């Protein structure tokens, strides 16, 4: 008698692929039965230095033998070291460490609201956000993102967010009122379909915030930490935010997030206004410091920018060769997307059949978010596997067309 598959003990919140990986090395993941997959989804922009990077592994091992957790009741040396490095490398003057991108966004939202409260303007507690945004899965961040598929079923939408169409500057300016605390935006939307905010628009946002005395809050959880060829994506526009949320690649696979701010923007965050039990624990700080050590090494970010151009050119050639499957290439650096003419889910599944791991996004886009250490040979392998996927899809389309003609 055939035995039924036992019910999973886990929440059914993921449509999981039937793959289990037991180890990784660089750009490669290996299943429990020995199959090798080329990973260009990178844990959705998390594994910025690939799998089992020796510098990160050594940092984690060394710290694990000394101290895992104390409490934020005490000073944490790793936080002070990482905070100082982030401040030296960015606009920021203050840093709060947490465990995830959603937590970093929660801190950013609270920091913006608290700033105006401390200045005697408690009515300024609303943030303007943009259609297609994704800021996390907490009740506040799904409200900030505004996507109905994430809001449905969780009761009244949390108030405090006013959403405008992506790229509509007139609607944005019209939305600013006496209750506006700031503008929250991703310089490049990830889940929204690798939609990039032009540098001129980011500059206009900065000017608009200065004009109205409100805060510019950036979500660089996905597009930050070297992914575009600079440490943070907003640097290409030559502007600085007041507050910025980061995570994902900051820990290279270890859960860690951070909220960065100017001293002025963070001035309302006094003892007792915010906290985190695990945030900034010694293990996370050891790994994140190691990530920065690699990323800030001379020439590393320049190499990412160069690789991004190479991969984008290769993807453009793929689009030209398979116009029935792909429409265009989007993105910057190693945060790239293929806008598809067929359902993007077919491309993701087909690529997986060819042992290539990608991830979908909104607007019928397939994201490519490889480790920043990817080689040109590995790029060529990725293109070859996408090519094979496109050929399979074209054959399927031809068969469907022939069948339709016969009918």
List the helices and strands and how they pair.
Layout (H helix, E strand, L loop, with lengths): L20 E5 L2 E4 L4 E4 L2 H4 L8 H11 L12 H13 L4 E5 L2 H18 L7 E5 L8 H7 L2 H4 L9 E4 L4 H7 L4 E6 L2 E2 L5 E2 L2 H14 L2 E5 L23 E4 L10 E5 L20 H14 L4 H22 L4 E7 L2 E6 L3 H10 L2 E2 L1 E3 L3 E4 L7 H31 L1
Parallel strand pairs: 3-15, 5-6, 5-7, 7-10, 10-11
Antiparallel strand pairs: 1-2, 2-3, 4-12, 8-9, 11-12, 13-14, 14-17, 16-17
Helix pairs in contact: 2-9, 3-9, 10-12, 11-12
Could you give the distance between the termini?
42 Å
* Overall domain count: 2
Main sheet strand line-up: 4-12-11-10-7-5-6
Strand content: 15-25%
- Percent range for helical residues? 25-40%
Q: Strand count, sense and closure of the main sheet?
A: 7 strands, mixed
Tally the beta strands.
17
CATH topology of the largest domain: Aspartate Aminotransferase, domain 2
Assigned CATH architecture of the largest domain: 3-Layer(aba) Sandwich
Query: Which homologous superfamily in CATH is the superfamily of the largest domain?
Result: Type I PLP-dependent aspartate aminotransferase-like (Major domain)
Notable traits:
four-stranded mixed β-sheet; Aspartate Aminotransferase, domain 2; 407 residues; alpha/beta; globular; seven-stranded mixed β-sheet; 12 helices; 17 strands; 2 domains; single chain; Aspartate Aminotransferase, domain 1
Summed up:
This protein is α/β, with parallel strands linked by helices and 407 residues long.
